[in-house]
Design brief:
By secondary structure, the chain is mainly α. 69% of the residues lie in helices and 0% in strands. The chain contains three helices and no strands.
Length: 62
């Protein structure tokens, strides 16, 4: 369940599947679910920033 939420958060998050969230609530308390969303979001942000930084380092003409 945690991986499904994390995977869903790698795409557009404005409309996460309600069944996914309801299923997660069967396994996690609200504070646990909030922490899962925050940690998954931070990991996603770190990956995106890391990818962008690699692209900036390899700019043509350097």
């Amino acid at each position: 369940m945690a991986l499904a939420i994390t995977d869903a958060m790698c795409g557009p998050t404005h409309d996460l599947d309600g069944d996914l969230i309801d299923g997660a609530r069967a396994h996690f308390t609200d504070p646990e679910l909030a922490e899962l969303v925050l940690v998954a979001g931070q990991a996603n942000l770190n990956n995106r920033v890391g990818n962008a930084a690699k692209q900036l380092i390899n700019l043509p003409g350097d």
